[in-house]
Structures are given as C-alpha cells and as structure tokens.
Write a structure and sequence with these properties.
Layout lengths: L5 E5 L5 H8 L6 E8 L10 E8 L1 H19 L2 E8 L1 E4 L3 E9 L2 H18 L2 E7 L4 E4 L11
Parallel strand pairs: 1-4
Antiparallel strand pairs: 2-6, 3-5, 3-7, 4-6, 7-8
Helix pairs in contact: 2-3
Length: about 150
C-alpha cells in the first residue's frame, strides 16, 4: 500500500489527533505516536523557560522524506506523519510529533523510534534553550540514547 508520508514544518501548535487521522487506514491495526514536549530542564540540567527552533526547511523536509523511506525499507508497509515546530515554544508545547501506522504493533513501535532518533540525529533543525537566568545556548542535534543502550 505504501501510504504517502505527511511531512511538515509548522509555526503553530501541532495537533497530534489530526496527524493520527492523516495516516489512519483500515489496513493498519496499530498506531504509535511520539510527542517531543518542551520540558523545564535543559540538556545540562539547567532550568529552561522556553525554546526556539530554526530550520533549513527544504533540506529538513528532504531529510524527513529520506528517513521515512528508510523506515519503510526496514519495517515494511507503514504510514507516517511527522511535524516539527519552529519558532518560539513554551514549556509544555509539542515541538515534534511522529505518528506511525502499521498492520502490527511491533513494526509501528520500531519505525516510530527509528524515525524520531534519525530526525534528532540528522535533520537540519536547531534548538536554542532559554534559561531562567536570562542566558541561552544553541544545541546541536544529537540522538540521545537511553541508559543501557548501545
């Protein structure tokens, strides 16, 4: 079936329910959703009051498409919706959403994890953390691993 991917960079709030609806199909028995939410603790443990994201939009969208194609090669017939927000974001805002539909849950979970990890590692999107002390710091994309991962 290979449903087309819904890939966007947005400047307004991300609606996860709309993304799920965009990939819904009667052939998929599983939908997995990842939401990256702005948290109050920065990558180095400092208190964050907000974030700013910038992107090279056309390059990032090409990278989104390539990552989704790789996920389909690895995990089979999946539908994918990816949105990444740019601009100023507050604590609690959704910065990125990945929704994957598949016939079975295993492929949906694996594909969703693969896509978000690859986006974080390779997409032409940059984050600036704004701290409570009035300072800020640009952070490079990096695929953060959970404890115990290789």
């Amino acid at each position: 079936m290979s449903a087309p991917a819904h890939l966007r960079i947005v400047r307004t709030a991300i609606d996860p329910a709309a993304l799920e609806e965009a990939i819904r199909s009667d052939v998929f028995g599983a939908t997995v959703q990842f939401l990256g939410i702005v948290r109050q603790t920065g990558d180095d443990g400092r208190r964050v009051v907000g974030l700013s994201y910038e992107a090279h939009e056309s390059m990032a969208l090409d990278q989104f498409a390539e990552i989704c194609a790789q996920a389909r090669t690895r995990y089979g017939d999946i539908a994918v919706a990816v949105e990444h927000r740019i601009g100023e974001l507050a604590i609690g805002d959704v910065a990125v959403a990945v929704v994957v539909g598949s016939a079975h849950r295993g492929a949906a979970f694996l594909a969703c994890r693969y896509i978000i990890d690859e986006l974080k590692a390779h997409a032409a999107i940059w984050k600036c953390e704004r701290y409570a002390d009035g300072t800020s710091l640009w952070r490079a994309n990096a695929c953060a691993q959970s404890p115990g991962e290789a």
